[in-house]
Design a protein that fits this description.
heterodimer, A: mainly alpha, two-stranded antiparallel ribbon, two-stranded antiparallel sheet, 6 strands, 48% helix, elongated, B: alpha/beta, eight-stranded mixed beta sheet, 23% strand
């Protein structure tokens, strides 16, 4: 019996989630709970950190639920799937190309190599990106990524969910095995579509990846070390945990954080765009994966993001003997003092105080490259 | 003495021409009618001092037009508490706005500032947002270019054209409310430096020489009244602090911005002629810098 149409339920479900993650006062906790339900993320975290996380308990739980009710995540709970289900597309077109399994294994292999590409493959992360769009600052790269996965579905109805989604592959496979529990059937060719060859290929690629990792101990190292949001200690840990959801970018009040293409869409502090405000720790609070760990305002004020350095060739005080000193005036931590040489006052950075908030670089009148710049 | 017709005509013409000449100088005559150039009020609370100020001018109605648009430029530029003395004391703002609202029935009281720290945090933490709203006024952060208009500064050497807040020209009465502070670039900041919150492109000031540029700005942006709120003054680590604060309990009021600044500087035991931007402002004829030449009225509570 259908009392309320499915579409209306879906509408309220999606808008409720967008409200919770996008605007509500419970934004921080909602985002954390939401990412916790992301099974692909849970698996990625345990592979990257080589620890069995508590969140993995959701796997047997889901298996049990799937045995009773089937794949409820793909059918009801996945918000991205709900949005896609309402996108009109060609229902009759048959697309035989179905790379979802390969994408899933590809992700796993890359994870073993410490490379995290969930930001462009995980539907839950796409949804958080969409919520971030409603939160505040808009980053066009994220919108491009999300809308591409939506527009795919106009070619064929639910193309993403059925043919591409790696998470859908994982859940559907689980559901197939779970249904065996219920019906006490032996696996047949129809119910499970894993042939011996496919299984062997997958297994072999797994072992190849692991041995490759052992042979060449590869871990992500940024060539140019970018400025990270406060409370990020180790670049490698950060790259492992960050899912490129874009929430930190969207909440940053000074628009200092930007998704950087060179660093795989991870957030980078760009002082010329904005500075890390003395009174804000919004990004540390909202990060759903704790890639940016929660940090108190008092601690944040002493946390070193980088250190400012003056380029004496372009600085107005050093070069033109002008009384500029805008960096001295703007520094919230009094890290820049002045020395007087030949009656001209010149700025000097005290490296023991400077935390690299980037306000000096932001306010410096020299364009396009400031005369004072923050380095890691 | 016999008055001939010729004599009468001669005398009357000369009298008329004298009158017309003096009428050109009318604003200065009004200034003289206050019977003081500079008002210094010491002791008491900020509210009491503002009340004394209006009393000395013979009430708010005499000081400013009724049913008018009043623009305020308080220093609310930093996210600091009132005790840290980086912004004007909110009590002063409240007392001022409240009195104007009650006595002159203004159309609108609007305050603005182009803040250095994020505007909403600055307005809230300084208590100025709350104070001005309680008294029936409003405050906004002037951060968009469309809130500004070009004015000419004929006396300027460096910047002859400047983007200045539109509300200054629109307003019928413009009050500049500043706090005396130590400043890392200009040594001290009082009223003239506070006018920098009225302009849009501040980078160019630093590039062309800050002291000269703010002195030039003061020749073109003329507040109708300058109130220097020295409830607390910031002695070190200015302009944003937190640094050493001295409780001076003084309010300095003048229509001459330079004169008010010159007096405020003495709170730091400094001479106005040693502060570069005040010296330049004097050279450009902004006002009187020599306190001995001015009539100072001191009220102690």
């Amino acid at each position: 019996m259908k009392i309320i149409p499915k579409k209306i339920i879906a509408f309220f479900y999606i808008s409720g989630l967008i409200y919770l993650i996008g605007f509500s006062p419970y934004q921080n906790i909602s985002a954390k709970i939401f990412i916790y339900l992301d099974i692909l993320w849970q698996i990625s975290q345990s592979i990257l950190t080589l620890e069995i996380t508590l969140g993995l308990l959701i796997l047997p739980l889901l298996f049990f639920i799937f045995a009773l009710r089937g794949n409820i995540i793909c059918r009801f709970l996945c918000p991205w799937g709900r949005i896609i289900a309402n996108i009109p597309g060609n229902k009759k077109r048959h697309v035989s190309f179905k790379p979802n399994g390969y994408i899933f294994y590809f992700i796993i292999i890359l994870l073993l190599l410490n490379i995290n590409i969930l930001g462009i493959t995980d539907p839950f992360v796409f949804f958080i990106k969409t919520c971030a769009f409603f939160t505040g600052n808009i980053s066009w790269i994220f919108i491009a990524v999300s809308t591409t996965t939506l527009l795919l579905n106009t070619y064929k109805k639910q193309l993403w969910c059925i043919n591409i989604c790696p998470m859908g592959f994982l859940l559907n496979t689980m559901a197939k095995y779970a249904s065996l529990l219920k019906h006490h059937k032996t696996p047949t060719e129809q119910s499970i579509n894993i042939s011996r060859r496919r299984f062997l290929i997958a297994g072999a690629s797994f072992f190849a990846a692991i041995s490759a990792k052992k042979a060449f101990p590869f871990s992500y190292k940024a060539k140019t070390s970018p400025l990270r949001p406060p409370s990020v200690n180790k670049e490698e840990d950060f790259m492992k945990k960050c899912v490129r959801c874009g929430l930190c970018v969207s909440v940053c009040p000074t628009k200092a954080l930007k998704p950087d293409i060179k660093n795989g869409l991870t957030p980078v502090l760009i002082p010329k765009e904005g500075y890390c405000s003395e009174f804000c720790n919004a990004c540390t609070k909202i990060c759903p994966t704790n890639a940016i760990k929660p940090i108190s305002l008092a601690k944040k004020r002493t946390f070193r993001i980088g250190t400012a350095k003056i380029n004496e060739n372009t600085c107005l005080c050093y070069n033109d003997k002008k009384l500029c000193l805008l960096c001295v005036e703007s520094c919230p931590y009094h890290a820049i003092s002045t020395i007087t040489i030949n009656n001209v006052r010149m700025p000097v950075v005290d490296k023991s105080i400077c935390i690299g908030c980037g306000k000096c670089e932001n306010k410096c009148p020299i364009n396009p490259t400031s005369a004072i710049k923050v380095f890691k | 003495m016999k008055i001939t017709r010729r004599h009468f005509i001669k005398k009357s013409i000369s009298a008329l021409s004298l009158l017309s000449l003096s009428s050109l100088q009318l604003p200065k005559l009004v200034k003289a009618s206050d019977s003081f150039d500079l008002l210094v009020i010491e002791g008491g609370t900020p509210e009491q001092r503002i009340a004394k100020m209006f009393e000395a001018f013979g009430g708010a109605k005499k000081l400013m037009p009724s049913n008018a648009f009043i623009a305020l430029k308080p220093n609310a530029s930093f996210a600091r508490t009132p005790k840290q003395a980086a912004n004007v004391n909110p009590k002063t703002i409240y007392a001022l706005t409240d009195t104007i609202k009650k006595e002159t029935n203004p159309k609108e009281i609007k305050a603005f500032d182009y803040t250095s720290d994020p505007a909403d945090i600055s307005f809230d933490k300084s208590g100025i947002n709350e104070a001005i709203k309680k008294a029936g006024g409003s405050i906004y952060a002037a951060e968009q270019e469309n809130q500004y208009e070009y004015i000419n500064i004929p006396k300027a050497r460096e910047l002859k054209k400047q983007l200045v807040n539109k509300d200054i020209r629109k307003s019928d009465f413009f009050i500049n409310i500043a706090i005396p502070k130590n400043h890392s670039i200009t040594e001290l900041t009082v009223g003239i430096k506070n006018l920098m919150g009225c302009i849009f492109n501040r980078d160019i000031y630093h590039m062309k020489g800050l002291n000269q540029c703010i002195a030039e700005l003061a020749t073109a942006v003329l507040p109708d009244l300058n109130i220097i709120d020295a409830e607390n003054i910031l002695l070190t680590r200015g302009p944003h602090g937190p640094g050493k604060v001295k409780n001076t309990k003084t309010t300095i009021v003048s229509k001459d911005i330079l004169l008010a600044d010159a007096y405020a500087v003495t709170l730091f035991d400094r001479n106005a002629k040693d502060i570069p931007h005040l010296k330049y402002a004097h050279q450009l004829g902004v006002g009187e810098i020599d306190l001995t030449k001015a009539t100072i009225k001191t009220i102690t509570i």
